[in-house]
Amino acid sequence: MADQIFVGGGGKGYAQAQGLLLKYANRHGLIAGATGTGKTVTLQILAEGFSSAGVPVFLSDVKGDLAGLAVAGSADFKLHDAFMKRAETIRFADYGYESFPVMFWDLFGKSGHPVRTTVSEMGPLLLSRLLELSDVQEGVLNIAFRVADDDGLPLLDLKDLQALLVWVGQNGKDLSLRYGNVSGSSVGAIQRSLLVLENQGGGNLFGEPALELSDLMRTDLDGRGQISILASDKLMSSPRLYATFLLWLLSELFEELPEIGDPDKPKLVFFFDEAHLLFDDAPRALVKKVEQVARLIRSKGVGVFFVTQNPADVPDGILGQLGNRVQHALRAFTARDQKNLRRAAETYRDNPRFSTEDAIKEVGVGEAVTSMLVRKGAPGVVERTLIRPPSSQLGPISDAERKAVIAASPVAGKYETLIDRVSAFERLKARAEAAAKAAEIAEDEEDRLEEKEREFRKARRYSGASSKSPRSRSRKKASDSFGESVAKVVIKELKGTTGRRIVRGILGGLFKAR
Questions:
Q1: Which of 187, 347, 392, 465 could crosslink 169 through cysteines, CB 3.0-4.6 Å?
Q2: What pLDDT digit, counting tens, does each position of 71-96 carry?
Q3: Homologous superfamily assigned to 4-116+208-407
């Protein structure tokens, strides 16, 4: 079975063997079922299978249970006997315990390597989704990004974006003539949303060094695919941040990886756990973006598996692209639940031996209704399947074990130190300081000229000496070059009220606070 991943089988009334063909793993998949029915174990055994086949995996660990992939199972585990019996029942002769190569990641940098991107790479569409902006506010954010591009202002972290928004807000009248209306209230609303994001820890996501996608596509010395696990237990307290980050990562894979057609096995498999968070209240434009990525990313060798409680959580345009399916039990307590159950059953290719709808209600923990793509990419007949037991540890690992895995990681030390290079914040600050210095010079020059004028008048009053008339002085000034005249006007304006307004507009009070 080198060309497929063994998923499970069973005795009488169950599939004899169910496998996921590696050739069709990039046709995406679905793991669904109610809480406590075995979705996490299914995700774990698929990750093991892909890793053993040399395919890197990225997944999020919502409950902390998937960290056990880094440690081999043990005969001391309370379910050891049950695992051995299950392996015998499904004729899994090669079953044994082993660990797998794991890299831990964490947006907060506590339970894994820090994972970051830049504000520019996130882009205005996803950032608007993250900040829950209105259409008008999203338009202003798009203007800010365009200004940054036109003026060569790198947007790396949140302070860059905050500084840029201050400048955009205080120069809104001029910018509106070129880019469209810039409302001060919209700028203020965006700034408040950024503050909320910072308070939730979202500022840790933005900065450098940014994540290199190649680090998610590694294999170890034995040729096994690295399993990248994103610690998401704390991240789930900010579900929109969680969903937006995973969607950004999926989009980056789509944009950066080359076209390779249909490979013999995927270059990467991406598991999107708690997938309903991606689509809850999502604008239509974003859903269309996800649908497009799901449709086209398979030609780049990436398989995407959505993990959720109910298939109804996934829009039809995306659900129709998920060829490999593992459906654990669904509960049908309400009329809506029953409708969703019938809808889920209708998406499978019927098996004359049983009712798919009844099977989805009846399967127990560790069992599932499965349908995998078979030869020529056709959907297989639905089968009742006993899911194979995992070879790695079932459940979380200790803090000491986690630290040891992080220390031995091939990217240890690469992302831990934050880099703060010159970007929009520093460049706008430099402009402000230059303007302030110019205003100071202008004020000193004006004071000098006024003092000279006073001295001249005083000398004329007491000495009785003749002096040039104002008309003669005007003629002398008229003889100045045009450039000198303009310079004097600018100096005077910088010294006066207008000049002080310019300086305040650039500074915005932001840089003093820092």
A1: 187
A2: 999 999 999 999 999 999 999 988 99
A3: P-loop containing nucleotide triphosphate hydrolases (3.40.50.300)
